[in-house]
Amino acid sequence: MAKILKIYPDNPQENLVNEVIKTLNNGGLIIYPSDTIYALGCNIFDIKAMEKLAQLKKMKLEKSKFSIICNDLSHLSDFTKPIDTSIFRFLKSHLPGPFTFILEANKSLPLAYKGHKTIGIRVPDHPIPQLIVEKLGHPIASTSIKDDDEIIEYSTDPELIAEKYDHLVDIVIDSGYGDNVASTIVDLTSGEPEIIRQGKGIV
């Protein structure tokens, strides 16, 4: 059964955040809030956790395109090829924020991402994922939670999310109702911003 942890953005309890970190380090899956929608996450360096995440999404790991959640831009060079100054300025002016930026990947990607030519980077404007990444010491892999409802694309109620994923994840972080608009996906691989999916973020 998934453990529900009520962690609030304005005053996140350190002991609860530490419990999330311990779960991630032990290969667990979490559901966490962001500045857009609730999402599934795991340790990018734990191949078994990444495989479980892919199974949950009913896809093969090598075919998956899980975003990498960072708490700032300092991790960029770990995963991406050198970035032009103009692109870096563009990223800096839009992050933290409700965007996923597609960048060219380097050869130092974690095992689960090997062979990927590009990588999606997110820096959510939300204290909880930022705190998790900061305390964990490295980014986490992430994918959005889709709803089966044809009208409402994304689940917003953490209690209903916990019910649905009860036996599939280890922790659900309840931060109150989430948004139901996903991040805007922007491809920066050509050097010019190209919107792949219009979401919450306005370029």
In words, what does this structure look like?
This protein has 203 residues and is α/β, with parallel strands linked by helices. The protein has 6 helices and 10 strands. A 10-stranded mixed sheet has the order 1-8-2-3-7-4-6-5-9-10, with helices on both faces. Strand 2 and strand 3 form a beta hairpin. Helix 1 crosses helix 5. The radius of gyration is 16 Å and the shape is globular. The mean pLDDT is 93. InterPro entries: DHBP_synth_RibB-like_a/b_dom, Sua5-like_dom, SUA5_domain. Residues 14-201 form the YrdC-like domain. This is Threonylcarbamoyl-AMP synthase. It comes from Chryseobacterium candidae.
The proportion of strand residues reads 15-25%
Largest sheet: 10 strands, mixed
What's the β-strand tally? 10
Q: Tell me, what's the shape?
A: globular
**Roughly what is the average pLDDT, rounded to an integer?**
93
Order of helices and strands: EHEEHEHHEEHEHEEE
Q: What is the gyration radius calculated from CA atoms?
A: 16 Å
